[in-house]
Amino acid sequence: MSRNQHRRSYNLAAISLGVSLVLGCGTLHAQNLPLECGQLTNHYGPFDYRTDRSKLPVVEHAHFDSGVESLTRGKSTEDIGGDIDYTLRAFPNHHRALMAMMRLGEREKTSKPRAARYTVECYFRRAEYFRPDDGLVKMLTGIYLMKQGRNGEALGKLEAAEKLDSGDPNLQYNLGLAYFRLGRYEEALAHAHRAYAKGFALPGLKGLLVKAGKWRDAEQASPPGTPVKGADGDS
Questions:
Q1: Sequential DSSP letters for 71-88
Q2: pTM, two decimal places
């Protein structure tokens, strides 16, 4: 992937889960940055990935090239966690680097990848603490939590992301997945229709709903604009 491309879609739903999740436990709150997650002060930055684009090249050229992002750089991968860590300390809400750290933890089957300063969860905490108005960070946090089997927490993050940017089809798809995991099939169906209406291509959510006997075509479902209840039961 070119460093000069700041792509919005990233195919996040494919990264999020497909259909299988790993069970876990715990809580994730942006308002508290625990001691084990360090401080945000850094010798370079911290900068906002969305707005401080002029500061990116010095970090990405040295620490987040295509080899690091794909977790394949060089003959040894021992330093990849350190490079992603550096990137995330300079740009705590670097969306692609957050995704890479999540994938590295999955590949190494650990909560704290080699050469990383913090746990994967800490990087998400730091990102959300740094920029609580970044809807994509909240969506990525929700994806991470779903992958840990923490579906109720994930839904809260995804609903918070929707308040910031409801038009992202990736977000609508992942909201549908979270609702499906919680057995809230009508809401899952509504968000599936929204995602597919916006051109989302992955059929996984539809397949889950079909298998559960809950799929209906859009014209058979609730009319467009019907409110979808939130996690607390309110519209």
A1: T--SS--TTHHHHHHHHH
A2: 0.81
